[in-house]
Amino acid sequence: MTTQVLAPGGAPPPGRSRSPGVLPGFGLSMGYSVLYLSLLVLIPLATLPIKSLELGWAGFWNIVASPRVVASYKLTFGASLVAALVNLVFGLVVAWVLARYRFPGKRAVDALVDLPFALPTAVAGIALTALYAGNGWLGGPIERIFGLKVAFTPLGIVIALIFIGLPFVVRTVQPVIEDIERELEEAAASLGAGRLQTLYRVILPALAPALATGFALAFARAVGEYGSVIFIAGNMPMVSEITPLLIISRLEQFDYAGAAAIATVMLAVSFALLLLINLLQAWQARLGGRA
Amino acid sequence: MSAGANTHRPAHLTEPRWARGLLIAVALAFLGLFLILPLVTVFAEALRRGWQLYFEAITEPDAWAAIRLTLLVAAISLPLNLVFGVLAAWAITRFQFRGKQFLITLIDLPFSVSPVVAGLVFVLMFGSQGWFGPWLQAHDLKIIYAVSGVILATLFVTFPFVARELIPLMQAQGSEEELAALTLGAGGWQIFRRVTLPNVKWGLLYGAILCNARAMGEFGAVSVVSGKVRGLTNTMTLHVEILYNEYMFSAAFAVASLLALLALVTLAVKNLIEWREGRAARAAAAAAGQPAPAAPALHPASA
Questions:
Q1: Which one, of A221, A97, A231, lies nearest residue A162 by Cα?
Q2: Taking the model in full, what pTM does it have?
Q3: Window 84-123 of A, Cβ < 8 Å to B
Q4: What counts of helices (H) and strands (E) characterise chain B?
Q5: How many CB atoms lie within 10 A of CB A49?
Q6: Computed over its alpha carbons, how large is the radius of gyration of chain A?
Q7: What percentage of chain A reaches a pLDDT higher than 70?
Q8: Mutation to test the B interface, candidates A16, A33, A172, most B Cβ within 10 Å
Q9: Phi/psi class of residue B99: alpha, beta or left (left: φ > 0; alpha: ψ in -120 to 50)?
Q10: How far apart are CA A237 and CA B254, in angstroms?
């Protein structure tokens, strides 16, 4: 770990305790934290790879690479990617509007952006299904005008994943837009850049790490999502069955090892995404420190 | 939120009027379509058949049992994760040790694990074919398909909330005040209660309400471990699912509307805390004669 020089003005990056171990309570707090973490999170998660070992390598591969499971990966990752891309574009617009412009009702809108964090996923799931079903407020018109079914198709899954991923890009990008120094834009303008040029050449590069972080967070969240998706997905094998659902159906057949095998793959993906997000956040912190 | 100075900009530092209008319209249309319409749908569907049926749906014995179980689960998991969050933040922000960053990553882990996987691990440990299954059966104990399983799964998914909120806050504050208290002869508990706690109380409350919202609203993880026995191991979200799958849509949305109200209250309290924190930061900065720092950034890692 690098020791950082304290930024002027006490900026958020770690102004870590400079006198290690003087305060009391290290043994108690550290011991309790590690014990609780191990009992509740680490040991339970370790059951996944251990249980999958029962299958042997061939058995493991047979399950995690079977056509139905592979179809579910394609759907889960594909829908998550599309949803995260939609959130990337519209999240940037929402963050920009909330950070820069004034309009009536702005405070309420700003507060409501976090709704997907606070609303239980099952509630979101049934609400979106009712909205986009053939007889719903949106589903009906969309089917009549475009001849497109949304609920009970992969498109419905994308809609649900847009909903649950919506706050991530907005909330990672918004504070960065607020912190962009006015002088930067002033300089670009005085050097003859048009507004569009300033946005593309000065502001967008400054936002890049935050955008990437928000995108990765939304994607990671979408990959594991279950509650909001299963109601709207239709859950047809090979077509609209997400990977978490396959874990549950294995479990319902008391195929614990099979469920553990698929879950091990998902855990590995989550872990890789978590590391990627940490790297992106470090990038963002470095860029923020330089500005 | 945004400082007033930021929204008043000369023409060369902002977009033309039509572009601003267009961007605002796009943002509001997107949020209206994906946030406001679903929220309105919940209440519209809940009240579709009138208030009479609405009240019957939420006071019916199984719904009532689900509400009680949800409150119980939150009442047990919240204090446990609060204690962990405070102790973990104390260890991480007040001491130097190797592997600190790794520990923070591990604390984040439940955020990025699928809720279904979170439920599954407890079935693998305590289910009838799990590691401790035979032992539990021999002693006539039940964790999976029982309330204790629901609590364990909820503890897992809400594990990082408080710690995640406190760690950056306590890191930014530094330990000068605690060290001063120490040199003045205060003991560990006294330092915590008189110095640390008042400094982090809003952050603590912030973490607590987010943790509570997730605890009451968790679906995937508890649906794996609960067994969905009506009146016994059914939480509110599971009750919503059962009613919905039985085509009792109005009743399902009636119970769902209670959860939506909880979400709205959570958002309101959260904003109140942010507003207070922002005001306190501005007041402190004004007293110190420095420009106000930006409002504390959110941690959207609440997957």
A1: A221
A2: 0.89
A3: 90, 93-94, 96-103, 107, 109-123
A4: 16, 0
A5: 15
A6: 23
A7: 92
A8: A33
A9: left
A10: 31
